Amino acid sequence: MDEVEVVVAHSERATLRVGAVFLKVDADPARLDVEVEAMSLAPVPTPEVLWRKPVVLATAAVRGTTLGRLGGPSTGSPAAWAAAGAAIRALHDAPLPPRPGRAGRSIAALSAELDAECEALVANGFLPADLVARNREVAEVALRPWTPAFTHGDLQIAHVFVEDDEVVGIIDWSEAGQGDALYDLATFTLGHEKHLDDVLAGYGTDVDRDVIRAWWSVRSLLAVRWLIEHGFDAAAPGCEIDVLRSRM
């Protein structure tokens, strides 16, 4: 019998791997609804859905390897990074899904969430006040009107698989929906700024790099406390706290 591998687990959800099958258990069935719907609509390679129960989704493993992970070394040729950029562009150009996603929060809601999180980070001693203040200033650039696109919403580098410099699978669609395209680009390149040029070469259109940098600050500020409270190391080299320090 294959061993059960815990891929990720916390209080909201857990993902297990058994051989060539991934089982995602989610406390909120609505997130699984979003995931299944998004994978059916996305014009990019996605995992095959094997079956679905109210709080469990089973998908087939995708082939290939990721280009790295946050805080780890990046791999892959410039062509592979460009291929990822092209796949992201294909997603963003697709017809809009029916609902907003994580990258589609309103400017007012995101600003309020960011202000509350910055206050909590300082008040509870997670980060020094000057680091938070500087990144809140940088983050303001992301809080502007945007044209809705079909976004993944959690396009971490570990969620995109490539083989022979082609994208062969994109996983974890529970945050997908209408949103800001630059949020996806920022999430994918978070901690791997040196590959931004390659990704944008594949993406094939001019984008505002200051907005991408601002989203790096937004995503990191919003993630640090959650990560620490759920047992993850946001202070590991190359991870969110390093990203915030790089803005200084």
From TrEMBL:
Residues 42-207 form the Aminoglycoside phosphotransferase domain. It holds the Pfam family APH. InterPro entries: AGP_Transferase, Aminoglycoside_PTrfase, Kinase-like_dom_sf. This is Phosphotransferase. It comes from Streptomyces nigra.
